[in-house]
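--- STAGE predict ---
source: upstream dedup step, 1 unique chain passed
mode: sequence only
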Amino acid sequence: MTQKLEKMAAFAESFVCRRKFLLNYFDEEHPDSCSNCDRCTGVHTTFDGTVIAQKALSAVYRLEGRFGIRYVIDILRGSRTKRVRPYHQTLPTFGVGKDVSVRAWRQHINELIHHGYLNRTADEYPVLTLTGKSRAVLKGEKTVRLTVVEEKETFMGTVKTKEHDIELFNKLRQLRSQIAQVERVPAYLIFSDATLVELATYFPQSPEDLHNITGFGTIKMEKYGRAFLNVVTAYCRKNAISSRMGHKVRTSRRQRIKRTLSGTTDTKLISLNMFEQGKTIGEIARARQFALSTIEGHLASFIPSGHIRIEQLVSKEHTALIQKAISQHGTTALKPIKESLPEEISYGEIRAVIVYEETH
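--- STAGE serialize ---
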């Protein structure tokens, strides 16, 4: 039954030729277009979805091909529901797609399945696995075109926050749409509605403020920070509005601490306590008979809550180098990042900076 429901949902949501979809279901081949069905005769905008595809494929790889679409989307969006296993919350791909909606992720994954980059098993409880075509995408050797998913205007009912300024929100949405048109990508890949709502709620006034807004990591700060900040500050000047960032920082810090500690294992807390007592990472690793990378991972998991500062684990010089490498290679795979950096920079340092980038 689960498999049939998945197939029905995929058929309804897919932008693939209807005839091709149905014939493939019966293991028959068909050209990409029949030129007759609603999908083939309709107008659908595509974009370079290679990064989206790499994130999805990487999540499936790190989950060892043992979970279905719903769970993979939970990992990509950084869901902390009870069904997400605690140890999966430490995966490099956990939360890398939080700015993409569940609906959009489901559509993109279904497209990847139909184009042969992912396989959905025919079991009673279907799981996603990689295919022979996956490797080229993961290594950046193959470009993937995906269909733009038109998001429904439902942010008012889905985003929970304090009162936000509707007029400013609309100005920010307009800017986001303009950037998306220029870059020829879906608007949600620029910023999610949740990010725009935060901007229109807390009125950041400086680049430092933006770092405390969901979605503004180093890369997006460099690309879009100034443009969005200019809209917010100009609106605040015109309407004599003061920043509310003080409340945002206090609230988000409490929430991060609560989320981090709620999923923290005893073994991580032991490493944290030893580190706070003045032990070095090497001393903790020897005392606990763990690999250095394991202890580095324990400590990095406390960066979101503020118990550990990034500069305690990675020097400013190494952080800058790693951030530059991330901007060039993304975070889907660590090996390209490592190979582009000096040999003395460890995987643990890279993971720590990635955690920092995703939560600040």
